[in-house]
Amino acid sequence: MRVLVPPAPAPRLFGVTDPYGDEQLVQLYDLDNPAGEDHAYYRALAEGTAKVLDFGCGTGLLTRSLVAPGREVIGIDPSSTMLGYARKQPGADAVTWIEGDHRVVEPTGDVDLVVSSGNTMMHVAQHADTVVALSAALRPGGRFAFESRNPAMRAWEQWTSEATYGERDTVAGHLKEWLELVEIADGRVVFDAHNVFEDGHDAVYRNVLYFRSADEITADLRAAGFSDVVVDGGWHGEPPAADSRLLVVRATK
Asked: In this protein, which residues make up the domain named Methyltransferase (predicted)?
């Protein structure tokens, strides 16, 4: 996934600066992150449900695809710019959009399914508190599903300017892009994403991701009241392995 950054300060996103505070860059998000196996996976989980919550919904590409007759769909995201874009897309009126983080999740106890795509949970610093809030929204037997990068793959080692440099023409003009690793400690990875615009301005966005092991994720889920925690190594039920790029998690309340 490309990391795009705005030319000006932006709101906060799960405790870090929101990289999508510029509307020109927001509209590139879906182009860089199109629907794929991940969206198909979450849509399959939503079959037969009456109420679905998309936590960290972003532009709402997945969220809007979850809409179905008789189903209530809620999208939550802390980026006002992302939500502003989402609200203007076809089918957006069928979704309830809410700005905020885990603190705006209502403990209704009637949600059938919570999904969190695009490695959203890796942006969350308060992981245990967030999992508790999402658990409170779910009914007994409801499910929470998300994915996270596998820390065993050490993806951050490839986040160098040499490995990530690229140029392309976009609606924001010609961009030169690359990543630079800043710090890693106890699973917390800090890196800078650079975007050099045509006028020579280099917009730098400092990103923070939290790499958690399957055991750490499972522990937080069980402490929040989830049972039957399943961690796969891919979108098709592959067993997790050291070389699995992703950890795909499902948990039942």
From this structure: 52-142
Classify residue 103 by burial, with Cβ atoms within 10 Å: 0-12, 13-18, 19+: exposed
The whole-model pTM stands at: 0.89
Determine whether 138 is exposed, middle or buried from the number of CB atoms within 10 Å of its CB (0-12, 13-18, 19+). buried
- CA-to-CA distance for 102 and 79, rounded, in angstroms? 13
Whose CA is closest to 18, among 75, 79, 94? 79
CB 142 within 8 A of CB 112: yes
**What pLDDT sits at residue 35?**
78
pLDDT on residue 197: 83
Q: What is the pLDDT of residues 5-29, one digit of tens each?
A: 333 333 445 554 565 666 666 766 7
Q: CA torsion sign, 237 to 70 to 58 to 212?
A: negative
Measure CA 230 to chain center: 19
Distance CA 223, CA 105 (A): 18
Residue spans of the chain under pLDDT 70: 1-25, 27-28, 31
